[in-house]
Amino acid sequence: xxxxxxxxxxxxxxxxxxxxxxxxxxxxxxxxxxxxxxxxxxxxxxxxxxxxxxxxxxxxxxxxxxxxxxxxxxxxxxxxxxxxxxxxxxxxxxxxxxxxxxxxxxxxxxxxxxxxxxxxxxxxxxxxxxxxxxxxxxxxxxxxxxxxxxxxxxxxxxxxxxxxxxxxxxxxxxxxxxxxxxxxxxxxxxxxxxxxxxxxxxxxxxxxxxxxxxxxxxxxxxxxxxxxxxxxxxxxxxxxxxxxxxxxxxxxxxxxxxxxxxxxxxxxxxxxxxxxxxxxxxxxxxxxxxxxxxxxxxxxxxxxxxxxxxxxxxxxxxxxxxxxxxxxxxxxxxxxxxxxxxxxxxxxx
Length: 349
Fold this sequence. Notes:
- It is globular and about 75 Å long.
- Helix 3 packs across helix 8.
- It has 13 helices and 2 strands; from the N terminus they run ααβααααααβααααα.
- Helix content is 35%, strand content 2%.
- Among the domains are: 8-40; 55-173, Cytochrome Bc1 Complex, Chain D, domain 2 (Orthogonal Bundle), CATH 1.10.760; 267-344, Cytochrome c-like domain (Cytochrome Bc1 Complex, Chain D, domain 2, Orthogonal Bundle).
- The protein is an all-alpha fold and 349 residues long.
- The chain has helices at residues 3-23, 34-40, 58-68, 70-73, 92-97, 113-116, 120-130, 141-154, 169-173, 267-274, 292-298, 305-315, 333-344; strands at 55-57, 163-165.
């Protein structure tokens, strides 16, 4: 071994030894740096601890919503056949009391996000971490404040001129319709009187099952005992119940199962699922956006159809197929070209 290589190896081993000594587990990893910890430590608690500085107005949130949220959640948060509604079911009286009356109304169709959520911080934190679906964590802090303010405004919770920030979050919390809809009367809440644990059990130390077999099914005697589940509370959102008037495993009347994609289907069909295209587009029917066969038919006469469609996939757009915009899609250029070529060739299965 050359002297230079020996020197490099010695330096590397010395550095590694220093890092291992810090952890207390020799040979295993190193301590995370402050910047690495900060990158992961982004949770926001219900008491607002962890909220970063920033702000966003309702009007600014509307711009973000229309560009990045409405394609899945609807212009007014009413959602569509794929996603649950975010807005609806709350009243001015709920804002006063902090309890959503319709949560106790079995006749009301469905439960929206603003009916259930009890802390604005939970809503803010989820949007920051998971939205938009096609590009999680891509929103800036100010955009998260803005779009949260707009969502609360859609629900009639905050006024049109409201600006949400780490300083005004408590004001919004004080108006949340279901802020008093939770309970602390359980063993997981610290303080107060001693309570029996919510979950009890003991570790299995002898004769343990090697592999657990889990199953969930509706017993025959319970099937349709309370009417057809497919016809109950299914007026809004993606709430699809089993057709209990038919035997288990049979095709439901209201929503026939889509035919399985054949094994010989082109690679582009697999890319549609990989990149989430099928959340908004079905092949043969309109979903949130147009059916893909319909798209293929519209551009069948263009000599540059593949290049044009690849550009639309990358850049997004609105107005061609209706008011709901399609956000720009972040996918590899080769995948965009493959999907576009498949569309240009007629979207065959």
